[in-house]
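Re-run with default settings, no changes from the original entry. Doing this only to confirm the output is reproducible before filing.
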Amino acid sequence: MEESVQPKCIVCGETKQEGIQIVSEFICEACESEIVHTDVLDVKYSFFIRQLKQIFYKKNA
């Protein structure tokens, strides 16, 4: 019997079923929506940028 592994969101760290896959990383629907609707002047914006950098920069690479 195969188990379905839910991906872990790179923004909130939770395992979710619905979301988007960018390169090798996953972003859940809730975080995707929040990112899209966050103003660049909002404090959360810089947090999102740091988290999204994980898509392109791998640690210990």
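The mean pLDDT is 89. The helical segments are 29-37, 43-52.
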